[in-house]
Design goal:
Length: about 280
C-alpha cells in the first residue's frame, strides 16, 4: 500500500500513464518538463531504463535546472535544445523533439494551460514549441473548464528585471475588452474577467527579495480572474515591452493526463478536436 497522499498518488498515476503511452523504444528525443508531477515521470523513466524499454540513445531536453537534475539522476543523457537537428527536414515543421511530457497549473477544456507556478515557463514553452507533441500531466485539482476557475495565483509572466515595475503598471492597465475574434462566451467582449488585473512580484522563500528565474529574470503573477480567450490574453501580455514569456500555453498541448480523486486516470484531448471527429 502506497504511503503517498491522494494528490501525490494522482500526480504519480497520471505521470506513469503518460510515460508508458508515449515513451517507448522508438522515442529518440524527449522533452522533460518541470515541477513536482514531473518527478514521478522521471521515476518511471528510470524504471523503464532499468527494464531496457527505452531507446538506447535516448536524449532528454531539460526545461529547467530541476529538470536537468532529474534527467541526470535517472542516468539519462541531457541535451541542449539548440544542439538537436530537425526531425523532419523539409516538412514545414521545425520540431526537434519527439514528445515532451510536462506538468501544468491548470488545463481548460481545449487543453490551453497555465504554467509557470515553478517559474520555468520560458524554457518549458521553448521546448514545447520544438516538440511534435506536448503531453500534460496533472492531478485532479488542475482539471478545469475555463482557465482561472481553479488556479487563483495569477498568470506567471517572466519579465526583465530592468523594468519590472513599469511592466507591472502596464499589465495592470490591460482592459478585458481587447479580445480577438472567434470564441463565444457569456460576455462576448471580454478576454478575461477582472476590470483591473493585479500584478504581484513573486517573492523568494528563504531568501529576501524576488524570485530570480533560471534565466536571471523576475516573475509577475497577474491575477485577472477567468480567462475566456487564452490566445488573446497571451498575445496581449506578450506585446508589453520587457515581457519575456507568458505562462499561458494556448493550443500547444495535444493530450492531458489527470489522476482522479477516486484513483482512476483520465486522458483528455482538446474538446473541439473531439467534436470534429464525431
Ligand atoms: O509550469 C510549471 C513550472 O514552471 C509546472 O509544470 C507547474 O507549475 C506544475 O507544477 P507541479 O507539478 O509541481 O504542480
Amino acid at each position: 500500500m502506497s504511503s503517498l497522499n491522494l494528490v501525490e498518488q494522482s500526480k504519480r498515476s497520471a505521470a506513469f500513464a503518460a510515460v508508458d503511452k508515449h515513451v517507448g523504444p522508438t522515442v529518440r528525443v524527449l522533452g522533460v518538463g518541470s515541477g513536482s508531477t514531473v518527478v514521478y515521470a522521471a521515476e518511471r523513466l528510470l524504471e523503464l531504463k532499468r527494464l531496457n524499454k527505452l531507446h538506447p540513445e535516448l536524449l532528454c531536453v531539460p526545461t529547467s535546472f530541476q529538470s536537468k537534475q532529474l534527467i541526470v539522476d535517472a542516468g539519462l543523457r541531457a541535451s541542449d535544445l539548440d544542439d538537436l537537428p530537425e526531425l523532419d527536414p523539409g516538412s514545414g515543421s521545425f520540431a526537434s523533439i519527439d514528445v515532451t511530457i510536462d506538468g501544468a497549473d491548470e488545463v481548460d477544456a481545449e487543453l490551453n494551460a497555465i504554467k509557470g507556478g515553478g517559474g520555468a515557463h520560458l524554457r518549458e514553452k521553448l521546448v514545447a514549441a520544438a516538440s511534435r507533441k506536448l503531453v500534460l500531466i496533472a492531478d485532479y485539482r488542475k482539471d478545469s473548464e475555463v482557465l482561472g476557475d481553479k488556479w487563483d495565483k495569477g498568470v506567471p509572466v517572466e519579465v526583465s528585471p530592468l523594468a519590472w515595475s513599469t511592466i507591472k503598471r502596464q499589465l495592470e492597465r490591460m482592459v478585458p475588452k481587447s479580445r480577438v475574434q472567434g470564441v463565444s462566451t457569456a460576455d462576448a467582449a471580454a478576454a478575461f474577467e477582472f476590470n483591473h488585473p493585479i500584478a504581484v512580484l513573486r517573492q523568494a522563500v528563504r531568501k529576501a527579495g524576488p524570485v530570480v528565474t533560471d534565466n536571471g529574470n523576475f516573475i509577475l503573477d497577474v491575477s485577472m480572474g477567468k480567462i475566456y480567450d487564452p490566445l488573446a490574453v497571451e498575445q496581449l501580455i506578450k506585446m508589453v515591452p520587457g515581457v519575456i514569456e507568458v505562462g499561458i500555453f494556448s493550443s500547444m498541448a495535444a493530450e492531458a493526463w489527470f489522476g482522479n480523486e477516486d484513483g482512476s486516470i483520465a486522458c483528455r484531448y482538446p474538446r473541439s478536436q473531439i467534436k470534429k471527429q464525431d
